[in-house]
Amino acid sequence: MFKAAYRITPFLIACLEKISSQKVFIEQLGKKSIIKMNVTMDSFNRSVHSSTWIEGNMLSLAQVAALSADRSVVAQEKQKLEVTNCIKALRWILKNKMLNVTSQRLLTLHAMMTKGLLAKARCGKYRSVQNYIVNAKNQIIFTPIPPRQVNKSMNDLFLWLEQQRDEHPIIRSAIFHHEFVGIHPFVDGNGRVARAASQWILLNGGYDPIWTLELDEIFAKDRAKYYDMIQQTHEMDGDYTHWIEYIAIGLLAAIETVTQRLKGEQRKYKQVPLTPKQSELLELLEKNGILGSAQLCKLMNINRARVNQLIAPLVKAGIVTKEGTTRGVKYRCKVEAYPSLRK
Fold first, then answer.
1. Is this model's pTM higher than 0.70 or not?
2. Are residues 285 and 216 in the same domain?
3. What is the rounded CA–CA span in Å between residue 169 and residue 65?
4. Which of 114, 176, 304, 330 fits as disulfide partner to 118, beta carbons 3.0 to 4.6 Å?
5. pLDDT tens across 12-71, in order?
6. Domain range spanning residue 283?
């Protein structure tokens, strides 16, 4: 049976209190704030970019954002597939964030992350071979458990996760993340799935994706420390205290970064709450990808002047992009990278 040893230190309590105080500002913006939608979309793209970059993907943030918006980019097909798989997997998590993370859902997540990258027989399946964790010099720094122990270890981890539902989400997420990486249950894709699943636990615990998604960028900014902290916990015989503190520090940095980004957006744009008609317009753009003024007039049963009146503040706020000129202009919704923004 898996048991996690850790201490609730004064430092950890201080971090959690600071995070709670920062959450108030974000919650006050409201779910339909255009500014919040813009920043959440940005956090989503940064999360995908950072999590894949940690594993060696070389696509830029701009290229990731383009793929998120279903636009083509020039890059190696394998690298594009890694990113598009991650986009689809994170969208799936956001859609199902209120469902508990289970073994079967984790296998589904892995299959989505590795589709077309691994042999079909290995997608969504625990490994049957030994694997190793190596450093930048290709030196083995950690040997995960033998394959025959993987199923039991993962079952024990999920049992622990269920039994600890009353524990703080950050503690549950941090410990699950680390233990998962230690088990290394898949042939490939372990890091991406570990980070995505730990995000899922935070979202399931009621945490807002606008800033929890930023955690992957914190990891990416100091990738060496991220790996060092994982290894340090192994060397400390499974005492998770410092690892939990590291995750809490990362989340505090993430929410502070997002708060500053939101305040910057507020200075750029006047807060514009969505009207029912603007919500309808955005849903049409999200569903169809791109529409012209004439199409919007027909679908919404309004005239061109009314379309322009509804869409102008959305274009100004950066939530809708304008393509083309004069009567041939078309509009595209920028929040399609995060389809549950308005729910």
1. yes
2. no
3. 29
4. 114
5. 999 999 999 998 888 887 766 777 877 888 999 999 999 999 999 999 999 999 999 888
6. 276-337
Calculate the alpha carbon distances from 262 to 15, 61, 64, 256 in Å: 21, 19, 21, 10
Tokens standing for residue 299: 């679908």
Q: Identify the CATH number of the domain in which residue 304 sits.
A: 1.10.10.10
pLDDT digits (tens, 9 = 90+) for 228-248: 899 888 887 779 999 999 999
Are residues 30 and 187 in contact, defined by beta-carbon separation less than 8 angstroms?
Answer: no
C-alpha 70/C-alpha 321 separation (Å) is 14
Return the residue matching tokens 């989400």: 169
Q: Is residue 5 part of a domain?
A: no
Sequence-distant (6+) residues with CB within 8 A of 8 are: none
- Strand order of the sheet with strand 320-323? 290-292, 330-333, 320-323
Residue 128 backbone dihedrals phi, psi, to 5 degrees? -120, 10
- Give the angle subtended at the CA of 168 by the CAs of 167 and 171, to the nearest 5°: 95
